[in-house]
Amino acid sequence: EAGVAQSPRYKIIEKRQSVAFWCNPISGHATLYWYQQILGQGPKLLIQFQNNGVVDDSQLPKDRFSAERLKGVDSTLKIQPAKLEDSAVYLCASNWAENSPLHFGNGTRLTVT
Amino acid sequence: RKEVEQDPGPFNVPEGATVAFNCTYSNSASQSFFWYRQDCRKEPKLLMSVYSSGNEDGRFTAQLNRASQYISLLIRDSKLSDSATYLCVVPPRANQAGTALIFGKGTTLSVSS
């Protein structure tokens, strides 16, 4: 079974620039999540999709972050404009049912300078 | 009480030692709990689910105490390869829109020879 695919693995940008991350979940997993993990912290949910609909985006900084999952499969997360405090690892995860274990991608390590 | 709290450690133990981590949670209605392991610069990976009756997998034992609202992870006969961060994962808050699992900040374990 192929795992959760994410790209790019690393990204370095200057503040106020924009950046986009891509995620392809495990085949058949209807639920997709984007988590942000700052160094020394646990992953924090940014947004949850169920198929192509948003279930929870209450912790997404909507003034600068956006995400979509148009066809209910892969997803993109965008930051525009980036701030220094956005430096983190952005993890995409999926699962097959509510409260079932999450499967994570390798993550994208973002550095904002 | 916070949704999930863990002692960040670090726990520094010699090989062969037994070490235990606790994690408290706030949502008394929670049903599904997990322990994830995260190696340095890697994504979190599921270590164990935590069942009401407790469960054991080799040197690892996970237990749930509903009355006191905590879960525990016991590692016996520690190996160098057990060095990692252990993340406690609990279900979402009762008033949370979605079903995204909530991660603790993690407990760092360092096993030395």
Description:
The complex is a heterodimer of chains A (113) and B (113). Chain A is an all-beta fold and 113 residues long. Helices cover 0% and strands 49% of the residues of chain A. Chain A has strands at residues 5-7, 10-13, 19-24, 31-37, 44-50, 53-56, 65-68, 75-79, 88-95, 103-104, 108-112. In chain A, a hairpin with a 6-residue loop joins β4 (31-37) and β5 (44-50). The N and C termini of chain A lie far apart (37 Å). The mean pLDDT of chain A is 95. Chain B has 113 residues and is an all-beta fold. Chain B contains no helices and 11 strands. In chain B, a hairpin with a 6-residue loop joins β4 (33-38) and β5. The model of chain B has no long low-confidence stretch (mean pLDDT 92). The interface between A and B is medium-sized, with 26 and 24 residues.
Annotate the secondary structure layout.
The complex is a heterodimer of chains A (113) and B (113).
Chain A: E1 5-7, E2 10-13, E3 19-24, E4 31-37, E5 44-50, E6 53-56, E7 65-68, E8 75-79, E9 88-95, E10 103-104, E11 108-112
Parallel strand pairs in A: 2-11
Antiparallel strand pairs in A: 1-3, 3-8, 4-5, 4-9, 5-6, 7-8, 9-10, 9-11
Chain B: E1 4-6, E2 11-14, E3 19-25, E4 33-38, E5 45-50, E6 55-57, E7 60-65, E8 70-75, E9 84-90, E10 102-103, E11 107-112
Name the features:
heterodimer; A: 113 residues; mainly beta; 4-stranded antiparallel beta sheet; B: 113 residues; 6-stranded mixed beta sheet; 50% strand; globular
Uncertain runs of chain B are none
Distance between the termini of chain B: 37 Å
The largest interface is:
A-B, 26 and 24 residues
User: What proportion of the residues of chain A is helical, as a percent range?
Assistant: under 10%
Biggest sheet statistics of chain B: 6 strands, mixed
Average of pLDDT of chain B: 92
* Total helical elements of chain A: 0
What overall form of chain A do the CA principal axes indicate?
globular
- Count of β-strands of chain B: 11
User: Which segments of chain A are poorly predicted (pLDDT under 50) over 5 or more consecutive residues?
Assistant: none
Compute the gyration radius of chain A: what is it?
A: 13 Å
Compute the gyration radius of chain B: what is it? 14 Å
Overall pLDDT of chain A:
95
